[in-house]
Queue: 3 jobs
Job 1
Amino acid sequence: MILEVCNLDYDYGGKPVLQDVSFSIRPGEMLGILGPNGCGKTTLLKNLNKNLSPKGGCVLLDGSDLEDRSKKDIARNIASVPQDNRVGFSFTVREIVSMGRMPFQSPFEGNSSEDLAIIEDAMEKTGVTEMADRFVNTMSGGERQKVIIARAMAQTPRILLMDEPTLHLDISAQFDILELVHSLSRSEDMAVVVVSHDLPMMARFCDRIMMIHDHRIRAIGKTEEVLTPENMRTVFNVDAEFHVDPVTGKRSVTMHGSTTGRAKSTGKPN
């Protein structure tokens, strides 16, 4: 076990956002967090690296409460890929990836030979080495996302947190990004936590799924155990079913339509 969430509660201005959330994250797995807008997915992710602090319960890293650890210490173990990957300045790819070494450095300290080797390794593992001297703000969304992942890998993390990593990417880039992260989770024995709305992509790439509904965990477990028609109707108001694609052998979800829309079209209650 790397990270354990114990009876976590969180609220904004007294309004409950997360209630009694408990689960653990294991090395080398991808955990997908699914749920409708406003259910607390991103809030939960921010509690996992101390960007937010629980109002109740705790988050433990190797048995130690995150609240007792410094931000720098947490960043040496947990890296994040935010929802927005835009870069406002003309940094090169190598400069962006180098920023991943900051938690290991003193202020104004340059990169050591070890840092430089880790930076090159991170770029190689994420396939951005040939782009090293390009300016990030001239790149496509998919290319830029790989650079942000490379920056995270330069932190040599044990846990990678990703918030909607395929948002605004075209279909090909979505597959590229999730295949890359899935491969890294295995090769680096790194736990990956992904927040997403994309049921089919999460079904394909995640080892386990957590579904949040009404601020609580509705279900958590193997993908096929969680992505049931009943859960998908309750949480997302869609008729959908989990299956294994007969062509690729990959797990997938087929969505047949909104239960709300069907009720309106038939005149029958949902």
Job 2
Amino acid sequence: MNPLQTNSYPLDMAKDIYNLCLPLQRLGITYFTYLKKFTDGSQIYLSNSGQWIEDYFKLELYKTSLFEDSPDSYNSGYFIWPKEDHSPVFLHARDYFNSDNGITIIEKNINYCEFYFFSGPVKATWLNNFYLNNIDLLKKFIIFFKSEGGRILRKSEKNRLHIHNASNLKSHDHFPNLKNERNVRNEFLSEINAMDIISQDKISIKLSSREKEVAQNILMGKTAQRIADQLVISRKTVERHIENIKNKLNCSNKVELIKRLIIFENNNSGA
């Protein structure tokens, strides 16, 4: 069953996503798709092309996608699309959308996994090197997308898609063993005593004045209720601000949030 028959929200939002993605055209990137897969089997699927969304589900292209397995199958990182892959999902993108030379950025969280797909024209073979040299630009766009598209993403949470028989999708044997890769990375970091190193790269994001107030109170160890009382707002509003901050800083839990806020405060203390 095509999930779009009962849930047209992704198609309805395609024009808005297209407008959000206009800055990518300056980089030669013509297509952008966002996929958020949850451990319960549901997902959010948004793209700047409504036709691509329609074909993806109507033609069941998801059955040959590298990114439709369980969220537990992936780790955070990025994946350059393979030129030698002739599966229907890649062939259809090349032949009917002039979409190739792509990269997928993966962000793994506890109960879900997010995928950001960027691609350009078939002849734009230079894009792969551009991605590798400018990952920071793509990550800044992701922050922009989650910030400016917050309303769409929040509403998408209430309009998740459910693919019929998604649990029966075949696992991709040719996809890298990401779990094993994670073990290798951890063993390497352990050997060089780097497991607890936190990146000191400048976190380039924008927090609203209210979000900054909430962040400062979090670093003081205050609970959401205490912050609400101090700022004279509801606890629900505080929790919404905290969720927005976590999204902007790419955090999945409170420990990560505090670590990232410390770095953010240190790097922006002179601003």
Job 3
Amino acid sequence: MGSNLGFRIDHLRAAARRLAKTVLVEPRFSRVYETAPAYGLDQPPYLNACCVGWTRLEPCALLVSLKDLESNAGRDPDAPRFSSRPLDLDILLYADEIAETPRLTIPHAALAERAFVLLPLAEVAGAWRHPALGRSIAELAAAIDPEGVAVTDLRLTGASDGGP
């Protein structure tokens, strides 16, 4: 989950509430991280978090649901790749599946090279193994440079941080 436009934490919290309705078991959310934009882009910083949940939706149906959440948050589906966005939701892993379609790659193609993904993901799914690499998420997170990624006091659910 990521956001770098508008009230970033509000976008993430709204998505967290909606995701909780999509999963069968209460989802677990990581802490919220503030991260520099990837690829040296001149953009506002992102807030990022990860979620683990269980769903009856197949991966492609889950992707459609996530794209609907992004659209409801104001994301332009025709905006250039890597542009700023109010909400970005990705499927990183889906059990131990490996899949590649024109719309969806599981595990996420850039998962193992992004600290802003691995650090929060390790909090909620550290023991999961990357099905293509055979390494745990915790191992991948420990091996990556964390520069530009900082944990915040913000939370997606539960205790309020008192701010917008």
